[in-house]
Amino acid sequence: xxxxxxxxxxxxxxxxxxxSEGDQDIRVYQLTKPSNQPEPPSDQAxxxxxxxxxxxxxxxxxxSVNPSSSxxxxxxxxxxxxxxxxxxxxxxxxxxxxPPTQIRKGNFRIVNGSDTVEVTVTAFPGDVGGTEANxxxxxxxxGLSPLPLGILEGQMEEIRIDGAPAILVKLSDPGAPxxxxxxxxxxxxxxxxxxxxxxxxxxxxxxxxxxxxxxLNSIKF
Amino acid sequence: xIRGLLLFFTSLRLTVVLLGFSMALVFFGTLDQVNYGxxxxxxRYFESFVVFWNPLPPYSDSNWARLALPLPxxxxxxxxxxxxxxxxxxxRFRWSWKKSGILLIHVGLVLLILSxxxxxxxxxxxxxxxxxxxxxxxSETYLENEIVFIDQSDPEVDTVYAxxxxxxxxxxxxxxxxxxxxxxxxAYLPNATIRPTGPEENLPRQxxxxxxxxxxxxxSWVPETFVDNEINADTAVIRIFDQERDLGxxxxxxxxxxxxxxxxxxxxxREFELALRxxxxxxxxxxxxxxxxxxxxxxxxxxKDFSSRVIVTDxxxxxxxxxxxxxxHPLRYDGHTFYQASFANQDTSSMLQVVNNPGWTxxxxxxxxxxxxxxxxxxxxxxxxxxxxxxxxxxxxxxxx
Lengths: 221, 401
Description:
The structure holds two protein chains of two kinds. By secondary structure, chain A is of the alpha+beta class.
C-alpha cells in the first residue's frame, strides 16, 4: 500500500521535472506542399480576430468566399487606405455591390447557384514587394507553389488601365477538388499600387472574365 | 527533523489551511478575471507557485500598484495537498476492510489532483476555421505565437522550423543544432502597433531587411491586452546569421499575415519563408466543411441552433467519415474532440474548437471512485449497525434463558 501512495506522490514530481516545455521550444516538421495536397490551400489564414479589438460579432463580418478575405486591419493601414481616392468605375450588372470595408475601396460579389466569386479593389503604398511577390502571394492563396518571375511572366498579360500599363494574371489549380481561381490585375499608379482581385470558384471566375475586363476598362483614376 | 516534517505533512491542520488558501485563491482569482480575463487568470493563479493579487488594473500608474497580497499558487497548493493526503494515508491510516471505503475516497481525490496536473501539462485547445467547401489539416491558438522558417527548396515538401516565440525576450540568442541558422532577438514586443512611416518622420529604422525595410514600417509598444476575445500583436525584430554571416535584421509580427507578401530569406543557398504567426498544430488527417447551418428563431435574429457537417479524411487509416457537429455533440477523432464554437462570413465559415486532453477520463474515474468509496463506507457502516442491533436483540433472550 505504501508503494502505491509513494508512487502517486512521485507522479506529479515527475510531471514537473520531466514535462517542462523546453523540448517544445523548437519543433521541426515536414509538410507536403499545398499544391500536392488533395485539398484547397492549407496555408489560407483563418478568419482572424481584429488585433487590439474585440472579436467582431459574426453578423458584422464582411461576406466572403475565402477566409483570407476577412482581413484584420493593420494599424495605419486604414488611414493609408482612406487617403487613396476611389477611382470611378462601372460595375457590371451581374455583380452585387457590397459595402466597402476599412481597406477595400471596392467590394463585390457574384453568385451563380452554388458558385460564389468575390471581387475586391485595394490600394497600398509602394510596390508591396513587387510583381513576383504579389503574384506568388495570390498563388499561395489558391494552393499553388510560388514560381520565379521568369515563369510567371508566361501567365501574365500586359494590359492598359486608364491609359497606364498594368498586369492581368490568371491563376487556377485544376487539380484541386473544389477548384479555386484568381483573376487579378496589378495596377501601378504613381508611388502606389492598386489591386483588383477576383477570387472564388474557378468555373465562375472564368465565366466572369469578360465582366472583369470590362470593369478594368471602366476604371478612371 | 524527519519526524517533525512527517508530523507537519500528515497534519490535518495543514489540510484545513491548504483548503482555506484554495478557497482564497479561487476568490481572488475570480476577482482578477475582470482585469486579466480567464486565460491569464488561470495561468497566474492556478498554473503558478506564487501569485500576487492587487485590485488595480494592469499597467496602473498608481503607487498602490506596488502593494500586493501574496498567495500560494495552484501548483504549490495542489502539490502540498497531494503530499498531505498521500503522507497521511501512508503513515496514519491503518488498513482494514472496515476502512476500504475511505481508502477508495482518498484514491479518488489523489486521482482528481493528478488529473489537473495531467490536463495542465498535456491538454491542448485550439481553433480551426473552415469555409464551406474548404479543407483544413491544422488548427491554431491565438494565445501562443511561433517564429517559423519554412524551407521551400524541396519541390515536394516544406520543412518547417518553428520556434516558440512567447518565451523570447530582447537579447536572447536562438541557436540549436536542429536549426540551419541562428538569430538574435533585437526587440520583442508582446503587443504592438505597426504603421507605415511618413516621409517627414525621422524615425529610426528598426529592420534592415524584409517588409519593414521595403514598406517603411515602424512598430511601437502598446500594453498587452488580457481581455478575452482580444489578441496581442506579438512583434519581434530578429537579426539572422548564417553561421557567422550577418543576414540583416527582419521584423516579424502576427500582424504581417497573408495580406502581405511573404518574407523570403536565403540561408546557405536555400530559400526560406520567414514569419511570426499564431502557433499551429498539424494533423495527419484533414477536415472538410461540407455544410454549415445556422437556424434562428422565427421572426428574430436570435440563434436557435448552428451545426457543421464535416468530412474527416485520414489517408493514413484509409478513413473518410462524415459527421454532424452541433451544440453538445462534438466529433471525437484520433484523440481530438471537435466542438462547434463559432461562425462567420454570413454563415459560410465555421470555427471548431479542437481539444486534445489525454487525461479527460481521469476526473470521471476519480468521481466514480469517490462515489464508490462513499457507498462502500456507508454500506459497511449500515451493515455494522444492523449486526450490532441484532446482537443487542439476541442478548436479552439469552439472558432470559
